[in-house]
Every structure is written in structure tokens, then in C-alpha cells.
Amino acid sequence: MDCIFCKIAKKDIPAAVVLENDNLIAIKDINPQAPAHILIMPKKHYATLLDCKDKGLIGDMLLMANQVAEKLKVYEKGFRVVINTNQDGGQTVFHLHMHLLAGRPLSGMMG
Ligand code: AMP
Ligand code: ZN
What we know:
about 110 residues; 3 helices
């Protein structure tokens, strides 16, 4: 399947990896919307949040967001996590991923 995030998860194309475990990878967004803009995604392909029924995996994505926030030292000031889903959600890459945004005050939905 021709999916850019599958290729990143398999290390077929490079990315700036922030954290990784057996099931998830967190990378720096190539077009950051905040000083810290990280994408947390499963290594397994799910096109959207709607396609993933794995409660454990979805929970682990949020727990990895906490770990990323700790690693980047944005834990205390705060951060935002967002999962854009389908057209009206603004999803452009159809491999489930969660944005973590931090490092500046965020206003509105995406700041
Ligand atoms: P979304 O609009 O929620 O689907 O978000 C897709 C995100 O992926 C955007 O913020 C892009 O900047 C980011 N992105 C696209 N290609 C890459 C890449 N090769 N490495 C890192 N981030 C990427
Ligand atoms: Zn994929």
C-alpha cells in the first residue's frame, strides 16, 4: 500500500523520531504549526480513527502523548492533542495519527 506513514513506520523513508515502541511511533511534523508539533501514530495501518477498534492501542496513543510532552518538557505549560478525521476534520494523510501541539499559547481549535 502506498502510504507515507506506513513507509515512515517501516523506516523506508526518514523522519525525526521522538519516541517509539513496538506498536507506535512519534515523529516531528514536517510542517510544524507550533514550536513542538509531533505526530503519534500506530505502526499498523488504520486509515482513520473510525477504522481502529483497538481500545488498547488508542489508549496507548494518549499515554505516548504524555511521554512526548514529558520528553519535550512541555508537560507543565501544557499541550493539545488532536485527531483530524475525514474531510470535515481536515485529515490529509489517511493513516491514523494524533497531533501533539505545544510551545506557544494555542487558541481556537488548532491554534
Ligand atoms: P492531517 O491533516 O491531520 O492528516 O495531518 C497530516 C500531517 O502530516 C500534516 O501536519 C503534515 O505536515 C504531516 N506530514 C505529511 N508528510 C509528512 C512527513 N513525511 N513527515 C512528517 N510529517 C508529515
Ligand atoms: Zn499507513
